[in-house]
């Protein structure tokens, strides 16, 4: 599933990269500390990583993290 962060919502709280540092880090070019995604596609069969991604989604106070299937272009 695709993992992404909506920078219009992200406020740089850092809960995602504290929760799942293997998936997120503060973007090195952003003064607000908004999150960069390290693994943009998470395989559901990797249950440990997928669980961490879901945990990060639940921890984000801004609902900025999306974890879901990409919608094919028409
Ligand atoms: S927890 Fe949410 S708001 Fe905070 S840095 Fe991560 S994505 Fe951004």
TrEMBL record:
Keyword hit for Metal-binding: yes
Gene3D superfamilies: 3.30.70.20
Organism superkingdom: Bacteria
Pfam families from the UniProt entry: Fer4_15
One Gene Ontology molecular-function label: metal ion binding
Swiss-Prot/TrEMBL cofactor(s): [3Fe-4S] cluster
Keyword field: 3Fe-4S, Electron transport, Iron, Iron-sulfur, Metal-binding, Transport
Protein name according to UniProt: Ferredoxin
